[in-house]
Specification:
Chain lengths: 253, 284, 295
């Protein structure tokens, strides 16, 4: 395997107050691949991906030890700024969360907070991001309408476009289809497959078919531990661990 | 037995209904009497002229203007403080001990009797800082009175902003302050404005805090600077009822002033209450 | 400027401003002590509190504030008889009986009652209630403790009502459902389940209503009559603490004994309301914990 490692977790432990939510996680996330994280609710999968762009810091009384290396640099190192990390590692959330602003302002927001003022550049970037998120055709005539008027699936693609606009290299998806209907879900999955040409993608999902459809690698989490990590095909056809097998065949979860 | 219970229930409900009807009866009574009796005094002159013939004729324009200045000053003072305090409490989530300390002091400040604010203003703004009895002293004192109200309504507005869009902003690489400025405050703005309008109503009607810090019974013209004394509607009503040499004529004017003040406050507060109800939904 | 430094500066500014309430509260306490304590060099503390005569402008002056304290207590107790049944009753009706539409109309009206300025209440009391009371009870003056109690009671009703309404909000729905499930009707559920569960929340509302009534200034100044004798009946004019401060501060020479005495009254008044607020705070915190809500 000579693939480039984009993100490397080394001995990551995570605590909410005194209770330990992640135990000694070691995992590699490869460049330009889709890595799926599966496991029953409360297994720590969402906790884990929120660490990858330091979103866990929004919750008080949390503590993390170990290292997460992004292109070889520890993101928890004191010389790294959380804002800097989040510019490089974007995130799409469970529920679509557009700002109560226009479609255009939603996409351009990330550019503006990053200090870009060139109007022409912003307009071009907005269009390109919307095209990449397969939303351009649906909204090009109403860019200045409120984003809240879009359907749930459109809102989620808008949130993806918003992340694309800031040119992060990695995108974290935290159960992006949890609140969507099957058609919207299919569109998002299609989009993820398209995006992996340029981006490193990590997706948390409780839907195993979804993991099987979109991912190249799969990690199985259980009770805060990484039980098994490997090629998606192998995990789903020939899991090494009996717990993984039990979960995949639907004996618990 | 079953029937008995139903009768008791019917009686109980009726008593409770009676309670709310009496309460609202007083609201109606106050509005009715003051409107009916004050109406005859109201005229264009009354609203736009200065008082004449030792307060028995002319208008109350300086008192209306004075109330406007005092209220404006109070908001200008209290709004930045209140906003900053609410932002700190909601967005920067300080340690539990700090939150409790600040919350207890806000609650207690809200419970301080209004005349005590007046004494504080007298001792600190009028005497210690040497602002004298003036618009400035009165505005600062009123500002402290409405500060808890502004903080709590702003807090409510900020807490109504969904956490998810804060996360979205941060995940795009915005800093905390950028998130507050660009996302949180614009979203909370309607709620914050409602709180400000309610505070305006409160500040316009307060009397005791300006008793020793700003109010004058009679002024020939309009105040010239923020260091001038000032007439104010609520104080004017009180003074007309307790001072001066022509009680009967003054009473008529007091009715007029009460009518203006009452409706001013009812309209301002009513507007805010209406908007807030629509924002919260009825059961909120 | 480096963004990280900018962020720190903003946070610092907010932190400083956030403490403004605390600063003002401490400022009030300091001012009251500084300006109030000097009177105790002239009169002993116990003579000040328990002295039966308040003649601050006599020669020699007498600074006994017992009549003022009792006047405050009387009008507040009188107000409780009005604001507790009306306020709690209204809250129960609003929360437990009124439908969605009724509530949407009634609740804003109660809030409107709370927004009426105290000087307008006072004016209403002087002009309408005074002659009315004078006639039906055949009194020499209508400006009495009774008048003040009634007006204060009406003023405190919306406060009690909205706080009691909040308290009822905290009673979990499951309590009511459990009661209905065993066949209780709405009235039985209300009296046997909801009111006991909301009891300490409602008592908080009453305490804060009292706190509001005892600190109210303009109305008592205008309608209580102003006589500084020890009250013996509700049909007498009285002079509560707030009224004494508001009426006399204008004439008290700054820095004189009278001035300090008035600040000392304000200190007593402040401590009373402070204790009320703290008690209410403690009860409501326990109450929320009891119902399984976070403090």
């Amino acid at each position: 395997m000579d693939k480039k490692i984009k993100i490397k977790a080394k001995h990551v432990d995570f605590f909410y107050g005194k209770s330990q939510a992640l135990k000694n996680i070691n995992m590699d996330i490869f460049d330009c691949d889709v890595t799926a994280i599966i496991g029953p609710s409360g297994c720590g999968k969402s906790t884990f991906i929120r660490l990858l762009n330091r979103m866990h810091e929004l919750v008080p009384h949390t503590n993390v030890t170990g290292e997460v290396l992004l292109d070889g640099q520890n993101i928890f190192c004191c010389s790294m700024d959380a804002v800097e990390v989040r510019k490089r590692v974007g995130m799409v959330f469970q529920k679509p969360n557009p700002f109560p602003k226009s479609i255009f302002d939603n996409i351009s927001y990330g550019l503006k907070v990053n200090g870009i003022k060139d109007k022409y550049f912003i307009e071009e970037k907005v269009e390109r991001s919307l095209r990449k998120a397969a939303l351009w055709e649906e909204v090009k005539d109403r860019l200045y309408d409120s984003a809240l008027r879009l359907s749930g699936g459109q809102q989620q693609r808008l949130c993806i476009a918003r992340t694309l606009a800031v040119e992060s290299e990695t995108i974290l998806f935290d159960e992006p289809c949890a609140s969507l209907d099957p058609i919207s879900t299919a569109k998002i999955e299609e989009l993820i497959l398209e995006l992996k040409k340029d981006y490193t993608i990590v997706i948390v999902t409780h839907n195993m078919q979804q993991a099987a459809r979109v991912s190249d690698y799969t990690a199985f989490f259980l009770m805060g531990e990484l039980i098994e990590f490997g090629k998606t095909q192998e995990i789903f056809t020939a899991p090494k661990d009996s717990k993984t097998e039990a979960y995949i065949t639907g004996r618990f979860g | 037995m079953k029937k008995n219970n139903d009768i008791i229930q019917q009686i109980g409900f009726s008593i409770l209904f009676f309670c709310i009807i009496i309460t609202l009866f007083f609201l109606g009574l106050i509005i009715f009497f003051i409107s009916i009796r004050g109406m005859s005094v109201i005229s264009w002159e009354f609203l736009t002229q200065v008082p004449k013939s030792s307060m028995t004729q002319g208008g109350v324009a300086p008192a209306i203007v004075g109330t406007f200045y005092l209220t404006l000053g109070a908001i200008l003072f209290a709004l930045p403080l209140g906003l900053a305090c609410a932002i700190y409490l909601c967005e920067y989530t300080p340690k539990g001990f700090v939150v409790n300390l600040i919350r207890v002091s806000i609650n207690n400040l809200a419970g301080v009797p209004s005349v005590v604010f007046g004494l504080f203003g007298l001792a600190v703004f009028v005497n210690f800082f040497g602002f004298g009895v003036s618009i400035l002293s009165g505005s600062l004192t009123l500002g402290i009175v409405i500060l808890p109200l502004i903080i709590s309504s702003t807090q409510e507005a900020l807490m109504a902003v969904p956490q998810s869009i804060r996360e979205a902003s941060l995940s795009l690489g915005a800093t905390k302050w950028e998130t507050i400025k660009n996302i949180v405050l614009p979203t909370a703005l309607p709620g914050i404005l409602t709180g400000v309008i309610l505070s305006i109503g409160r500040a316009a009607g307060e009397t005791a805090p300006i008793l020793f810090t700003a109010a004058a019974f009679y002024m020939r013209g309009y105040p010239k600077s923020i260091f001038s004394e000032v007439m104010a509607l609520p104080y004017h009503i009180y003074a007309l009822m307790t001072e001066g040499a022509h009680p009967d004529k003054q009473r008529a004017i007091a009715y007029g002033c009460s009518l203006i003040l009452l409706w001013l406050v009812l309209l301002i507060s009513g507007f805010a209450i209406f908007i807030r109800q629509r924002q919260r939904g009825v059961h909120g | 400027m480096h963004p990280r430094i900018k962020e720190k500066i903003y946070k610092w500014i907010f932190t400083v401003f956030a403490f403004s309430s605390l600063v003002f509260l401490l400022g009030i306490i300091i001012v009251l002590f500084k300006e109030g304590l000097p009177i105790f060099q002239k009169v002993s503390f116990s003579k000040f509190i328990f002295g039966k005569t308040w003649y601050p402008t006599y020669d020699p002056p007498e600074f006994g504030i017992l009549p003022l304290i009792l006047a405050s207590v009387w009008v507040t107790v009188g107000a409780i008889f009005i604001c507790v049944p009306l306020g709690v009753g209204s809250a129960l009706y609003l929360h437990e009986i009124a439908g969605y539409k009724q509530r949407a109309i009634l609740k804003p009206l109660i809030e409107l009652l709370a927004s009426i300025p105290s000087v307008v209440y006072g004016f209403f009391g002087m002009m309408i209630l005074t002659p009315f009371l004078q006639n039906i009870f055949n009194l020499p003056t209508g400006l009495t403790a009774l008048n003040a109690s009634i007006i204060l009671g009406i003023m405190a009703t919306p406060t009690v009502c909205s706080l009691a309404d909040d308290a009822l909000n905290y009673v979990p729905k499951a309590f009511r459902e459990a009661s209905f499930a065993v066949g209780a009707n709405r009235w039985q559920t209300l009296t046997k389940v909801v009111i006991p569960a909301a009891g300490s929340g409602i008592s908080t509302a009453i305490i804060l209503g009292m706190s509001r009534a005892i600190g109210e200034t303009m109305t008592v100044l205008m309608v209580a009559g102003g006589a500084s004798a020890i009250p013996k009946s509700f049909f007498q004019p009285v002079r509560p603490m707030t009224a004494a401060i508001a009426a006399e501060m204008g004439e008290a020479p700054m820095g004189g004994d009278h001035y300090h005495a008035l600040f000392a009254i304000a200190l007593v008044l402040f401590l009373i309301t402070f204790v009320f607020n703290i008690i209410a705070e403690i009860i409501s915190r326990r109450y929320r914990i009891k119902l399984g809500l976070s403090g």
